Amino acid sequence: MKELIRENKAIKKVELRAIKIDNLSFSYPQNSPILANLNLEIFTGEKVGIIGPNGAGKTTLFLSICGLLSPLGHISVFEKPIIPGAFCPEIGFVFQNPDDQLFSPTVWDDVSFGPENMGLSPQEVAQRVEEALGLTGVSRLKDRIPHQLSGGEKCMVAIASVLSMQPKLVLYDEPSANLDLKARRRLINFLQHSQETILLSSHDLELVLEVCDRVILINQSKIITDGNPQEIMSNQELMENNNLEVPYSLKEN
Predict the structure, then answer these.
(1) Distance between CA atoms of 237 and 251, rounded to whole angstroms?
(2) Of the candidates 31, 99, 101, 30, the residue with the CA atom closest to the CA atom of residue 66
(3) What pLDDT sits at residue 14?
(4) Residue 129 has pLDDT above 60, yes or no
(5) For residues 184 and 159, what is the distance between their CA atoms, to the nearest angstrom?
(6) HEC letters along 53-118
(7) E strands of the chain, at which residues?
(8) What phi, psi does 86 have (nearest 5°)?
């Protein structure tokens, strides 16, 4: 009976798998591999932090999952294979710099761009835009010009432009970069209550601690460790060996 229960749990876990990566490898031209034979599973509803030093491959991993690169190996999202260059509506990608993502005359136009290009009706587009602006708390900005917004406002509008497509998985690449304390706190509160499966790459380790229930440390083209954020990030030797610091909140007095 115990084996049957374990078997049933295993079946359930496979059904709820959001990402499966097998033997993922990628090299930029004339460089050594930045990712080498990575194997990884992420499950629906998880909030997973991806940490590591500069150049460890965090953004490369995200670009590979989105199909924006053509790595070796296999990636599937919600049991569907990722085909490089093909649109996958289940995935949303929030860029590190919102200015790379916002390009329309108004906030409304930016947030509606995705749903409109998905071929939705004007009524459904409007509904999705209103919902995304409301979720991110920027409804008041809908008629504003994006490049005139503050850094924190741009960040939330960029997130809204992704959420309007209703992805089941959202990748956040350094979302707190260049935010002031108030905007950073608003972002943390938003991420804590988000319903999507989240992968979050950040050097802001305190943010990772507050948002994520799992952390993956990558360095030297491979996964160094994967597990509980507090346990991993409080390990001073592990962190220093990978050019990271123990977050202040985890340091012993």
Answers:
(1) 12
(2) 101
(3) 44
(4) yes
(5) 14
(6) CCCCCHHHHHHHHCCCCCCEEEEEECCEECCCCCCCCCEEEECCCHHHCCCCCCHHHHHHHHHHHC
(7) 17-26, 35-43, 47-51, 72-77, 80-81, 91-94, 169-173, 197-201, 214-219, 222-227
(8) -95, 140
Element (DSSP H or E) covering residue 120: none
Q: Which residue has the tokens 């050594």?
A: 32
CA neighbours within 13 Å on the CB side: how many for 82?
Answer: 29
Cα of 46 vs its chain's centroid, Å = 11
**Nearest residue to 80 (alpha-carbon basis) of 17, 35, 23, 24:** 17
**60-119 residue pLDDT tens:** 999 999 999 999 999 999 999 999 999 899 999 999 899 999 999 999 999 999 999 999
What's the CA gap between 171 and 191, in Å, rounded?
12
pTM for the complete prediction? 0.89
Domains of the chain are: 40-90+173-245 (3.40.50.300), 97-166 (no CATH)
- On the question of pLDDT at 253 being above 90, the answer is no
Q: What count of other Cβ atoms lies within 10 Å of the Cβ of residue 125?
A: 20
Nearest to 41 by CA among 57, 21, 16, 13: 21
On the question of pLDDT at 167 being above 70, the answer is yes
